[in-house]
């Protein structure tokens, strides 16, 4: 199958392209520079796509967007986060509406649900509050041209992806290795996590199965931040007891702290499991052991 992938240089996109190619699929990376081979195609999220490269594609997977948690949330950063997702999704959705591949897998996030507290949230849960919730709502709506053309559209609402490089785990691993890691805030907030391996497997599952609309791409057993911290310390054989105060996170991350590491998101993958998906890493302990072996 020919699969077009945007955001192919990111954490998930790189792993997805590798997985597809290992299984003999033709994975074409969308790039913003001049293409350097037949496996790349030019695009600009602000309105340019090489329609010829999309011809014959069985799937288009859209993962591009500015990082959410890697820099403080200044007003300019929030504008970039929003514009990079909505403009890029609309650009690709309009191209998909003309080419009509079998499926448009358009990236999304569990930020849709906002702070869920101790309540479990599946795909039937209502829209939460805050910048991220409103962003995800509009981000998903930007894919409407593809759905309007009769293309199957799936929105993988991804949680915290665990990988040895990149993401939450990759950024904090050096501290934990030194025994300087610990719970964030009070540690009671829920963390909806999934390994990179299972994320890629879930995306491929969504490409192949007849499922559409929002699908939570998270592991089946979310944990509190304190439980995650304890499991990571155990996996590294290091103490993990030094808490990071909420005020310090707010000072470092500005607005993101209160919509990211300090809120509780207890999200479950109901539709993914109902569609027959099987997780390789359902438990946090085994998941971390597996991920850390990849270093």
Task: Identify the notable features of this structure and list them briefly.
two-stranded parallel ribbon; alpha/beta; globular; about 300 residues; single chain; about 15% strand
Helix and strand arrangement:
Blueprint: E1 2-6, H1 11-22, E2 26-31, E3 40-44, E4 48-49, H2 51-54, E5 59-62, H3 75-99, E6 103-106, E7 108-109, H4 131-141, H5 144-148, E8 152-158, E9 160-162, H6 167-177, E10 190-191, E11 193-195, H7 196-208, E12 213-217, E13 223-224, H8 225-236, H9 246-253, H10 270-274, H11 284-292
Parallel strand pairs: 1-2, 1-5, 2-3, 5-6, 6-8, 7-8, 8-12, 9-11
Antiparallel strand pairs: 3-4, 10-13
Helix pairs in contact: 1-7, 3-4, 8-11
Uncertain segments are: none
Number of strands: 13
Give the number of domains.
1
CATH class descriptor name: Alpha Beta
CATH superfamily: NAD(P)-binding Rossmann-like Domain
Instruction: Give the name of the CATH architecture.
Output: 3-Layer(aba) Sandwich
Overall SS class: alpha/beta
Content of β-strand: 15-25%
Report the average pLDDT across residues: 94
Task: State the share of residues found in helices, binned by percent.
Answer: 25-40%
Radius of gyration: 19 Å
Give, in order, the helices and strands. EHEEEHEHEEHHEEHEEHEEHHHH
Task: Kindly report how far apart the N and C termini lie.
Answer: 30 Å
Main sheet properties: 9 strands, mixed
């Amino acid at each position: 199958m020919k699969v077009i992938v945007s955001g192919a240089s990111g954490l998930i996109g790189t792993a997805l392209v590798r997985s597809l190619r290992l299984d003999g699929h033709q994975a074409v990376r969308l790039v913003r520079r001049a293409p350097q081979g037949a496996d790349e195609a030019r695009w600009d999220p602000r309105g340019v796509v090489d329609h010829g490269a999309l011809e014959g594609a069985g799937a288009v997977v859209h993962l591009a967007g500015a990082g959410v948690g890697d820099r403080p949330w200044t007003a300019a950063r929030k504008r970039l986060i929003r514009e990079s997702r909505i403009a890029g999704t609309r650009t690709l959705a309009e191209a998909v509406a003309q080419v009509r591949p079998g499926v448009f897998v358009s990236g999304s996030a569990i930020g849709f649900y906002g702070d869920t507290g101790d309540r479990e949230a599946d795909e039937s849960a209502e829209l939460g509050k805050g910048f991220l919730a409103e962003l995800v709502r509009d981000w998903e709506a930007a894919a409407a041209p593809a759905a309007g053309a009769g293309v199957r559209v799936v929105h993988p609402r991804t949680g915290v992806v665990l990988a040895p490089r990149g993401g939450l785990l990759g950024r904090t691993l050096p501290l934990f290795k030194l025994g300087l890691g610990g719970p964030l805030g009070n540690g009671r907030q829920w963390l909806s996590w999934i390994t990179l391996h299972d994320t890629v497997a879930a995306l491929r599952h969504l490409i192949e199965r007849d499922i559409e609309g929002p699908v939570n791409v998270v592991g089946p057993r979310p944990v509190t931040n304190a439980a995650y911290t304890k499991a990571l310390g155990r996996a590294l054989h290091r103490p993990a007891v030094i808490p990071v105060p909420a005020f310090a996170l707010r000072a470092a991350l500005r607005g993101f702290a209160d919509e990211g590491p300090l809120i509780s998101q207890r999200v479950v993958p109901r539709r993914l499991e109902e569609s027959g998906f099987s997780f390789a890493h359902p438990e946090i302990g085994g998941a971390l052991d597996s991920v850390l072996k990849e270093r």
